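Name: Peroxidase
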Amino acid sequence: MRPKTATLPPSSRLLIFPICLISLLLFFSSPVSSSGSSDLSPDFYVASCPNVELLVKNTVRTAVAFDATLPGKLLRLLFHDCMVEGCDASVLLQGSGTERSDPANKSLGGFEVVESAKRLLEILCPGAVSCADILVLAARDAVELTGGPSVRVPMGRRDGVVSSASHVRPNMVDTTFTLDEMLQLFSSKGLTLDDLVTLSGAHTIGSAHCSVFSERFRTGPNGSVTAVDASLDGSYAAELARQCSGGGGESTTVSNDPETSAAFDNQYYRNLLVGKGLFESDSALAGDRRTRGRVEALAGDQEGFFQGWADSFVRLAGVGVKTGGEGEIRRSCHETNR
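Structure predicted for Peroxidase:
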């Protein structure tokens, strides 16, 4: 039986101590030196922190064992980071006027997992591993831990020192966006139409607040539910209305995928084909001839989705990265060193 959250020890102890002994043994079995490479590479930390991937994965695995909602949160956290200022961990910075303070980012989660991994790495590999790389690895591991593919990602990102709330809205996909609006934003980041369809598959895990999609259906005085747009299945709209009418208000959430919400799989695309895309932006993929064929292909080919995901995830994680002398390696992920 999973322990209740209220019985858990503080998060920093929970995530770090169960793996510290193993991590220390692994760490001291390998030499430590700084890397002078300014290019992203899967082997970037081979000398400076050779066990970084194992350390991050153990941290994520331990956290997910106590909170099954974290995989979706970590994946969303990475997307919100990379689309604004690039993949530089700027979304992790706290303070007035930062990206994290913008209302669009108020519902983000998973920060404590990245911070816990950073604290551990600062003990074992001080000043070596960026928060930006930790976030990419944590999101990658979140997918694998929920049944998705294992992706080999290049590393060597540095942390940004700029984080502005005013930069969030112009660079973030809204759930009401049309395909053209989404494509324009993705293209500005160097991502393709195929990347858009494939990365939208992230909605196979995670959840959303009812307020984000409640305008897609209307509830009558007699309790009847009518889908406002034709792309939403009527029975699905009724089920969403039922789940959102529990009195939870803004805190009520619904799974993005009504069928296999805990598994990273291609069910998301099958949902789209029967009118069960939670957001208008989801439904737009199945309703436009430019993307309909790709949705159909991925709905029938999970292995193809996994292969495409690996490629698109690496491209997403490469958006606007800072390397070499750019940015810094933060000592703590929620604040700059300056």
